[in-house]
Amino acid sequence: MDICVILTYRCSSKCSMCYVWQNPTKLDEEVSINTLKKIPSGIDYLNLTGGEPTLRQDLMEIVDLLYPKAMTLEISSNGLHSERLEPIIKKYPAIKIRFSLEGCESTSEKIRGEKDGYQKKVKGLFRLKELGGKDLGFSMVIQDDNAEEAVELFRFATKHGFEMATSTLHNGFQFHKSDNVPYNRRNIAKHMGDLITEMLKGYNVKNLFRAYLNLGLMAKVLGHDRMLKCSAASDFAFIDPWSDVYACNVRPDLRVGNLESQDWNEIWNGSSVKSVKDSVYNCTHNCWMVGSAKTAMRHPKYVKLPKAGPLFWVIYNKLKIMFGGEVDFKRYINYENIYKDEQIVRRKFFLNESVQKKLQSKSDPHYQMCRKVFNK
Ligand code: SF4
Fold first, then answer.
1. Which among 164, 165, 172, 168 has a CA at the least distance from the CA of 185?
2. Ligand 1 interacting residues, C-beta cut-off 6 A
3. Which residue's alpha carbon is nearest to atom 6 within ligand 1?
4. Which end of the chain is more exposed for a tag (fewer CB within 10 A), N or C?
5. How far is the CA of 125 from the centre of ligand 1 (A)?
6. Closest atom of ligand 1 to CA, residue 280
7. 358 falls in which pLDDT band (50, 70, 90)?
């Protein structure tokens, strides 16, 4: 199974599609090493994220603890403090590191509210490569303001031996967001289609399956139904900075326990998980979050292998591209059936803006504004 640990809601970026940075956690209330010790061994994929995980002074200690427990350990970072990852990469060169980058310099800095962020993260990733990093890359949230730069960023990443992960706008408690709605669904999907074609031109197996993952993003952006059933609370879970355990990072009502006050087995074999699994089965959110999409694509028993559906799609479309054909989008994508939003609120940008942050306490009621949000 996969676990994602949101180590903190403190963050040094000021993104337009994630308001974690406006709602930081108190340092002394964030999930502790003693609590993290309760995460079981034998995890397939463990992601350390935030907020910005490198703001945790004890990150090295956390990695020392969790690296042996997982087949793959990823740190998802904004890349603004890459020097803090240098000792980690020296010790664990195979650790997976992704820096958020939203396109070219001006686009990325506008979306992420990061002055000089582009230079810092690109230089930082090259430095980690020099130090021996083996699984380094960027991650991009494809949206109206950067969709047309997705192919260019992918080419830049592959040219330099980096990976490029993609996602798209979602509302969810992890982002403290309720207005992440695309303005022009057709246009974003079109650029995602171009990215899929580009990924299928190469021979990197990861990128071939990322092409399928992007097909799911394309379907999500157009408002089509999820391509594969969600397996939250069965195959993956999220732990928030207050040690609360959730089935996913979208719905705050899918809480299954608290790792500070309970043991993992007590939570995972408890009655809450059983009822949450029913809610997941009947979930009507049209989400394609990376966590839920990746696990849904995977063979349930042989986790290194894909399910038959994604595998056949990849083989069929790779062969089509190899022999001069085009990707067969028609089976999954219908441009005549695009979801029409009732209300679209324009997202704000915060580069050079100063915003008053509101500290969140462990005892506060959490995620109130996310209880009624929806993803279509
Ligand atoms: S489909 Fe529902 S349960 Fe699954 S990740 Fe999305 S919001 Fe959560």
1. 168
2. 230, 232, 247-248, 250-251, 280, 283, 285, 287, 289, 292
3. 287
4. C
5. 32
6. 3
7. very high
Report pLDDT for 343: 84
Per-residue confidence band for 373, with pLDDT thresholds at 50, 70 and 90: confident
pLDDT tens profile 292-305: 899 999 998 888 89
The rounded Cα 47 to chain-centroid distance in angstroms is: 9
Residue to mutate, 255, 283, 284, 374, ligand 1, most ligand atoms under 8 Å from C-beta: 283
Atom from ligand 1 closest to the CA of residue 287: 6
pLDDT of residue 165: 97
Reported as a pLDDT band with limits 50, 70 and 90, residue 214 is very high
Portion of the chain with pLDDT greater than 70, in percent: 100
Question: Which bin fits 113, alpha (ψ -120 to 50), beta or left (φ > 0)?
Answer: left
Residue 252 and residue 370 in contact, taking contact as beta carbons nearer than 8 Å: yes
- What is the Cα gyration radius of the chain? 20
- pTM equals 0.96
Report d(CA 62, CA 186) in Å as an integer.
42
Q: Which long-range contacts (CB under 8 A, 24 or more apart) does 187-190 make?
A: 187/144, 187/147, 188/142, 188/143, 188/144, 188/147, 188/221, 189/218, 189/221, 189/222, 189/333, 189/335, 190/147
* Residue 131 Cα to ligand 1 middle (Å): 38
